[in-house]
Amino acid sequence: MTLRYRRRSDCLSQSVAGEVLLVPCVEKVVDLDDLVFYLSDPVALRVWELLATPRSLDDLLAAVVEEFAVAEDRARADLERFLGELLAARVVEKS
Predict the structure, then answer these.
(1) pTM of the full predicted structure?
(2) For residue 95, is it within any domain?
(3) Burial of 91 (0-12, 13-18, 19+ CB in 10 A)
């Protein structure tokens, strides 16, 4: 079975002035600055759009390479890092 990533259903997202603001729902908020996650980079915004439905790393990679004309090895490294950040921020989950 292929590992897929998707947006968490309990994450709030709002588009504001060309950026997306992500706020995971958590039981206790200690510091809002540590909780809010901003997306403004065009590639990050596109990946967030794609994660509306479960996607494998390879699915995301193919879309990024095709749409942004970036080298596959560079795109893979950037995607792995970005997905790690989204997982740590609790706005994406593995399925």
Answers:
(1) 0.82
(2) no
(3) buried
